[in-house]
Amino acid sequence: MFRTSWPTNNDDPNISCTDVLNELAYGFEISWLRYSCHIDEANHVQCDDGSIGLRLRIHDALQVLFYLETKTALGIPCVVAFLIYKWRKRHLSMYDAIEEFLQSQINLMPIRYSYSNIRKMSKGFKDKLGEGGYGSVYRGKLESGPLVAIKMLGNPKANGQEFINEVATIGRIHHVNVVQLIGFCAEGPKRALIYEFMPNGSLEKYIFSQEGSIPLSIEKTYKISLGVAHGIEYLHQGCDMQILHFDIKPHNILLDENFIPKVSDFGLAKLYSTNDSIVSLTAARGTLGYIAPELFYKNIGGVSYKADVYSFGMLLLEMASRRKNMNAFADHSSQIYFPTWVYGQFSEGNDIEIEDATEEEKKIVKKMIIVALWCIQMKPSDRPSMNKVVEMLEGEVECLQMPSKPFLSSSPARPTGDVGDNLNSTSSSFQSGESSQSAIL
Questions:
Q1: How far apart are CA 180 and CA 195, in angstroms?
Q2: Residue 247 annotated among the catalytic residues of the structure
């Protein structure tokens, strides 16, 4: 039961406006009754009431409301400012890490350019050659005259690790079969890599039939495969540090004006001591269809340079057959997965029919396939080193023995897509037929 102390004069119910205003200004009491009943000695019920009151002043209530509104109004900007601070701190730490790395690399061969230099040599990023997961590639020209490909990195991932990977690996080496990094730019979020220009684009558009593409001769295809093998061999054994590429595939092989192949795209590469026979990785990395099985199945062997050997073997098979290793539209279901089918053909003593090929060309193709089958053995220990691969490719096909069947199953599935450190899309693949320089993305 509730009661109030207003009006104060219970005998005079007529209250003036002034009284009302005074009560509102100075407050009024709200109270409620709490009855306590008991039975007395005469067995009569007695009830006592005790009141609990609350005095509330209007201006006090307004002060409370004002406080709450002020706290809310000030709190939202504080939260926003905190989030901006955290974002800037994360990105600044990334830029600081990149700058610290660059300062520590006193033996870097590439030139460091300012962003204004990059804009100038690309003519304001006018001529776009391609676009990929890490950014866009533009045609540029150095003041000294040579054309270059400028890879502008966007959407920074892994704290700028892809930028550091490329500069740390190809920034310190020079080989005829490895794309040359001429320079770089690192100004906060503005990061770029400047490469030698490859006018004939990626190998992908030549080994897979595409509209308007000119197929390579078997002899030229063989020479390209040998050049790629030399390039990977150099990465594994020709440097003071062992460089594992982890993304060997047709798209990442560039061709210069003379069709000399260059291994490119070192965004997933890792540097290791030459004494490290087994390396540690937190997750599989590379492009599905070319990734070595030990990156998924730890029980078949440790991860080493043999992972690149496997990827090269899958590349070599596609070069020799001029088709994807996995082709759901093959003429016969047995040919859907080419490695299994071709192993069965050779094991039975059958040769592959190649239209308009000479006997010498057929031998070259057979040699490339046998070497590839050695490279894609399931266990890393059964695969040759790249030094041995070069030796086999340069030798005679009659000297080669057939390897064991390289697969645990006769028809392994090959999904499409890329895999990175967190099994996300970190490789920068394009669909076949893109612009010539896009493969360096």
A1: 6
A2: yes
